[in-house]
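Quick start: read one record
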Amino acid sequence: MSLKNSYDVVHYDIVNMAQYLPLGINLPSVHSPNDATSLVYFRVAKSMNWSLAKLRMLVSALLLRRFERKMYPLFSKVHIVSKTDAEYLKCLDTKIDTSVIPITVDDNFLAKVNVRHKKNDTSEFIPKIICTGNLGNPAIAQGVDSFLQVAFPSILQKTPNTKFVILGQNIKPDLQKKIAENANVEFLSWVADYRSFLTEADIVLVPDCSGPPGAKTRAVQAMGIGLPVVGTESAFDGIPLTNGKHALIYTTMDECATLILKLIDDKKMREKLGENANLLVIQVFALSTVGASYESLYLDAISKHKSLMYNSNIL
């Protein structure tokens, strides 16, 4: 049986896989980069100071944009997670057929964690702030670095036993050195069970200085299990939340420290934020909510391909 007769539609995940489209060019195709990748690179570069690293980021963005303009019109459908991504790709080429579908999270990240055993009124309470992400991304690394230098010392002045745990990859030596110099900070490069690791947090920090315009999985997962999340505006891009109800947004590191200290001192505030966040994620990002849109995406790709094949045969 030929490949052509074996599949109804072929899914090409992330931008790296788009290069393999020619292997299945006669089949209905869906590409799911999630984000307009070159746009993400441009946004990150914009937040960086001029340096060789920024120049490399800009060159990568230009090359990715050229690749997107060349390859994406060839797919039956291109799936991204935000309208901003869709508008950007349409500006590259109007023939890029986009579908905007939010990210979805596994049901394990919709079960709210029980934080009632955390007691602020005993000396045994050791607040734990958890931050995760790829530290090879300058926008994330810069946010972590700023938190360590500005916000965390202020937090330790009020609550000296607070722990800050970072889970990440591709850390630069200078940042690793700063982490090693602080006894209250722990760095991990891997954990066996990510959800279990997150449930140990009292507060989750998402300090991204810039990034994709769509929702970040890290933020959605933490909110989904009912944890209070503190982050930048960029950290919550693509999440239809209300600041102060579903999460806490800061614009400066001093404000970040103030918000975290409030959460440490107020168990009920942590619980309420977590409850609201959990409900929001279930309503917007659960598979039961988003799943039908994915089904339509594949059916639309098949229908479009059949129509194009039919019209080409007539001609």
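DSSP finds ten helices and ten strands in the chain.
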